[in-house]
Write a structure and sequence with these properties.
The chain is of the alpha+beta class. The protein folds into two domains: about 100 residues, Glutaredoxin; about 100 residues, Glutathione S-transferase Yfyf (Class Pi), Chain A, domain 2. The protein contains ten helices and five strands; from the N terminus they run βαβαββααααααααβ. Strand 1, helix 1 and strand 2 form a beta-alpha-beta unit. The radius of gyration is 18 Å and the shape is globular. The relative contact order is 0.17.
């Protein structure tokens, strides 16, 4: 049964790195969505009804399918339209890409949270967790020494999937980060930060309310 809305609905939160990677893919795919910016401290009932886990991004397709994981939203969008070839086969094998994304989620993000939000944990030394992430950054820097982007000469979904978390890590202490000897990584990071793509997906939208006039965008 179809839903009673014209465009897919994207629940998002501007600063969330998972939501950022989904918005990058939607922008690249040129798919128009109804964007619903929410506050994670004030989750609307309609959002929780669609996705009880209560995290963003969440995309509801025209057919009523609820897609709750950012990487799945990326695959959904780019399978519809991939004009910038973000799904290009680059130099990395599929198992290498999977390992990189798994390490990002299970290791890098875990350490990032303890570095950025040490008060949320008991007995955490934030500097230890900061430094545990240096090996991951070193690996990215080696990839970027070989290519302008992580997997080939142009940006792919892998760059957009990883970038928001490296940016978040950098923002905890940008002076310390900028002194790191990872010149290729830093060039890649700042190239994306300075890009029109990033400016577009970071545009501010008012907090969504159920009776609002819908806001439609493809983040152009």
């Amino acid at each position: 049964m179809k839903n009673n809305f014209e465009y897919p609905i994207l629940y998002t939160f501007r600063r969330c790195p998972y939501a950022m990677r989904a918005r990058f893919a939607i922008r690249s795919s040129q798919i128009i969505v109804e964007v619903r910016e929410i506050k994670l401290q004030e989750k609307p009932a309609a959002f929780l009804k669609s996705s009880p886990k209560g995290t963003v991004p969440v995309l509801i397709t025209n057919l009523g399918e609820v897609i709750e994981e950012s990487l799945d939203i990326i695959k959904w969008a780019l399978s519809k339209n991939d004009p910038h070839n973000l799904l290009a086969k680059g130099k990395l094998e599929n198992h290498e890409i999977t390992k990189l994304l798994d390490d990002l989620e299970t290791k890098f993000k875990t350490n990032l949270d303890k570095y950025k939000y040490p008060n949320r944990f008991c007995g955490v030394d934030r500097i230890i967790h900061r430094d545990k992430n240096l090996n991951f950054l070193k690996k990215l820097n080696l990839y970027l020494k070989r290519n302008k982007s992580l997997n080939c000469e142009h940006l792919t979904f892998l760059d957009y999937a990883i970038f928001p978390f490296i940016r978040q890590f950098r923002n905890v202490d940008h002076e310390w980060f900028d002194k790191l000897d990872f010149c290729f990584l830093k060039e890649w990071l700042y190239r994306i930060i300075d890009s029109e793509d990033f400016s577009s997906i970071m545009k501010k939208f008012k907090k969504w309310e159920p009776n609002d006039v819908p806001i439609y965008t493809n983040f152009e």
